[in-house]
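4.2 Preliminary Data

To establish feasibility before requesting continued support, the project team ran the inverse folding procedure on a target of 312 residues. The structure was first converted into the token representation described in Section 3, and no sequence information of any kind was made available to the design step. The complete token record follows.
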């Protein structure tokens, strides 16, 4: 167990504190926090004390590969892209290495981060499996694979192509993603071929819902699609949960949130809600990362809480 692995475990378990674990393991002084700060290995004696405690908290189950989450809803304008972007930023700020994939030919995610497709895009890799996904770096821990209108052509070209729902999964397997903790896929507003590619490439789906009548009607179709994929492929893709976005403090939103919680009792509905905030459109309008635009915005904090809830 290296100090790097221990540091990663703490990042993936935000409910644990270094001080608490240090005490529980009976490690004297501040040896663990000092080692983590200085990136120095622990002594064998301290490692022997620490290991059983960390195993008790699930160290052995720590994922070795990136967890892939598709952000899905066939309804348009319900916060899929915004959630991919700010949740990605929030996770990256926790020290996790995050890759975001723009699976929407509108290219909104790429635009938010001002990443162009001049060095390649998702479409290239979906058409030719020998082309790895062109990963672009945004900041130390945050990366994106961009898209533009070219992706729309892929849908028609792939219509009768073999394994046309597995092209993104195949592209991810030929791309070097070692070291990434999370891969977030921003889906287009449909349950067509591109979203099917995203779902098939994922471990789970996160569904963004604006608590209004038009957004709640038809929500069932997403769960049906995920179930169908699992029935026919046996892939075991999970529903990560439902997250309410652009929430207003009014009785209509309150009523629809209750309706969703009642209707989908078998699924997780995140306690963290993303409230409507003018900061989102302001930051996006000037193509600034949310936390660069405003380091302590309410909406940024909400996405940090969502990241913590997702990790717990
Ligand atoms: N919490 C929020 N507060 C205020 N505005 C928001 C919020 N989240 C998203 N928006 C705005 O709402 C619009 C739709 O959001 P977004 O693009 O994230 O949705 P989407 O589901 O990805 O849309 P599409 O289906 O077209 O891809 C955008 O203009 C975005 O700036
Ligand atoms: Mg979008």
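Position-by-position output of the design step:
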């Amino acid at each position: 167990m290296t100090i790097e692995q221990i540091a990663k475990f703490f990042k993936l378990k935000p409910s644990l504190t270094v001080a608490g674990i240090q005490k529980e393991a009976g490690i004297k002084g501040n040896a663990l926090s000092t080692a983590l700060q200085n990136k120095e290995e622990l002594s064998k004696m301290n490692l022997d004390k620490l290991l059983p405690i960390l195993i008790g908290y699930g160290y052995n189950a720590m994922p070795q590969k990136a967890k892939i989450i598709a952000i899905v809803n066939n309804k348009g304008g319900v916060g899929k892209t915004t959630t991919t972007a700010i949740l990605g930023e929030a996770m990256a700020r926790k020290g996790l290495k995050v890759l975001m994939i723009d699976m929407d030919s509108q290219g909104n995610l790429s635009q938010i981060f001002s990443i162009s497709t001049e060095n390649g895009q998702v479409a290239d890799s979906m058409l030719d499996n020998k082309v790895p996904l062109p990963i672009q770096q945004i900041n130390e821990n945050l990366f994106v694979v961009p898209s533009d209108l070219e992706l729309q052509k892929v849908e028609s070209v792939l219509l009768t192509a073999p394994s046309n729902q597995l092209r993104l999964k195949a592209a991810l397997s030929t791309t070097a993603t070692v070291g990434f903790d999370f891969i977030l896929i921003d889906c287009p507003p449909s349950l067509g071929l591109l979203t099917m590619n995203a779902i098939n490439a994922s471990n789970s789906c996160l569904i963004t819902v604006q608590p209004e009548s038009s957004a709640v009607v038809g929500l069932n179709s997403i769960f049906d699609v995920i179930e169908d994929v699992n029935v026919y492929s046996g892939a075991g893709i999970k529903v990560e949960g439902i997250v309410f976005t652009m929430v207003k403090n009014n009785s209509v939103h309150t009523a629809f949130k209750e309706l969703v919680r009642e209707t989908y009792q078998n699924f997780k509905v995140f306690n963290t809600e993303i409230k409507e905030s003018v900061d989102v459109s302001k930051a996006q309008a000037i193509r600034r990362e949310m936390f660069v635009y405003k380091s302590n915005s309410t909406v940024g904090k909400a996405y940090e809480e969502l990241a913590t809830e997702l990790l717990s």
